[in-house]
Write a structure and sequence with these properties.
The chain is an alpha+beta fold. The protein folds into 2 domains: about 5-210, Alpha-Beta Plaits; about 225-285, no CATH class. It is built from 9 helices and 10 strands. Helix 8 (about 245-255) crosses helix 9 (about 265-285).
Length: about 290
Amino acid sequence: MRRDASAYIRANFRPEDRLAVVMIQQRGEQQGKVVQRFWSAETAAWPKTQAWLRYQNKLGWDVYASANPLKPGARGRHKEDVLEARWLYLDVDRDGDATLKRIDDDAEAGRIPQPTAVVNTSPGRYQVLWRIRGTETDRAEDMLRRLAHHYGTDRAATDCARVLRLPGFRSCKRDAPVRLLRYRQGPPSGLEDFPQDLPLPDGSWAARTGDPGGRGQTGPRGAGGDTSKSGQDWAWTREQLRRGRNAEEVQAELAARRPEKSNPDQYASRTVDNAQRSLEAAIGRSR
């Protein structure tokens, strides 16, 4: 199999599958700007489309695409827009080489299925993907959370509407090539092929309430020692604003840091608004 984005898309999707292709600018005055297009997999893999994306990549745009297919006609990247879950994935963003070896050792021992694909997104950082038989998003996300907790990978990368980097482009954020290290052809795995006894994070909403989708959660996150990625974002945003940094700059940087969100700009705007209200309330209490 060729190791470019076109071949990767064709291997991962059916021609008629609907995808979101997302670009985030990492340079200049437009840094943090997000652009997204909704195409069929066939169109996304088309040579002229790929040539246009490569040109944009050279101009500083990072390129991502849906991990799972969207419903026909979908114009958003929310959970309800996902047709079905066909992939599990881990975003290995720390202790990458050691974590990848641990995953490979477990696969070799038969504790988990062999990964379908391993993508090196920058030195020491990886995306590890397993093709699975199409299933409900709630069931897939439950397993994503368990795997991320077990291997210590990014717990924010556990939603089925996620976009992932495409091999064959460069990571403009980290100035490194995004490379497909290996790809295993073969039938998809079933969720039952993964360990069913992996625990959920002790402090997670799902573990506390039995709500694996987190649908009952309300209020701003990040308070009360929330160590989730969103909680960390909220705490970071609040601290930047407290130090007097411009809110628009903070919003742009946060959007650039969270490309996996279905709408990074909206997520960043909401986080900044919540942080500003928190600071205003704190000032009011101190008067």
